[in-house]
Structure formats: structure tokens, C-alpha cells
Amino acid sequence: MAGDEPRPVLAVASAAGPWRPFGEVRLSARRGARADAAPAFDPIGNVPPGLRLAGPPARLRDTGYRGSRRGRGVAVSRVARRG
């Protein structure tokens, strides 16, 4: 893809703080069906450094993603979950 493609910015904010960017989405070349099916997005196991998940929704998501990881045969360390 061309270098002028849009790059959505990922940002986070607390209830009392401003939005802070922490990443962006970059699209590169097209992928085949097998490679396209492989990615798994796990926001519980891949918390960006300096961020943390909080509150009841985070606990519910942790339970759901734990089941998903178990079904895919993937493990995540406690350090990764803490962010």
C-alpha cells in the first residue's frame, strides 16, 4: 500500500484525564487467506506498556479472553496481563 494511506491513531483516556495516543494502525501488503486467518487480537494479554485495564469490564474480558486463549492453545504471562 502507498505511504499516504490513512493510519488510525489508537488513544486512551481515564475518566479524569485527556486522551493520550499510544499507537497507530498500519496496513501493509495484502495477505493470503491462511495468514489473514492467523492473527488473534487479545487486549488482555497485550496491554501496551504504561496502560492498565481497570474495573468490572476488565475482569469480564479477562475471563472471556482466557477461554479464547485456552481454545487456541495460547498462554499469556501474568506480566503481560498487567501491562
TrEMBL record:
Residues 73-83 have a biased composition (Low complexity). Residues 39-83 are annotated as: Disordered. This is Uncharacterized protein. It comes from Micromonospora humi.
